[in-house]
Automatic annotation (TrEMBL):
Pfam families: Pantoate_ligase (PF02569). Keywords: ATP-binding, Ligase, Nucleotide-binding. It comes from hydrothermal vent metagenome. This is Pantoate--beta-alanine ligase. Its EC number is 6.3.2.1.
């Protein structure tokens, strides 16, 4: 299993697969994987030649005072679980990779009444 932490490495790997005409499925997660996640990986394997699973605990998905700091971080166990179901690639970037300007620099759009 490829284990990637940067976007350029992921893009390069995906480009190789695309050049061979392989279909690629993406399973985004926040880690702390369980049987349900692995079932999603297996379903992805049934419809694509390659499967990429991300493990990224997104700080923007937590409101102030919520459990971001205590959310389980089980990357080693997640990696082993993904290897056990023959996942092709794990993408586990740091927050600085996804939000190079910091998570506070995101753009938000609010639509009144929605």
């Amino acid at each position: 299993m490829h284990s990637l932490v940067d976007v350029n490495g992921l893009r390069s790997l995906i480009a190789q697969w695309r050049a061979r005409g392989e279909r690629i499925a993406f399973v985004p997660t926040m880690g702390n994987l369980h049987a349900g996640h692995l079932a999603l990986v297996q379903r992805a394997q049934a419809v694509a030649e390659r499967v990429v699973v991300s493990v990224f605990i997104n700080p923007t998905q937590f409101a102030p005072g919520e459990d971001f700091d205590t959310y389980p971080r089980t990357l080693d166990a997640d990696r082993q679980a993904l290897e056990s179901v023959h996942t092709d690639a794990l993408f586990a970037p740091d927050i600085s990779v996804i939000y190079p300007g910091g998570a506070q620099s995101t753009t938000r759009i609010e639509v009144p009444g929605v």
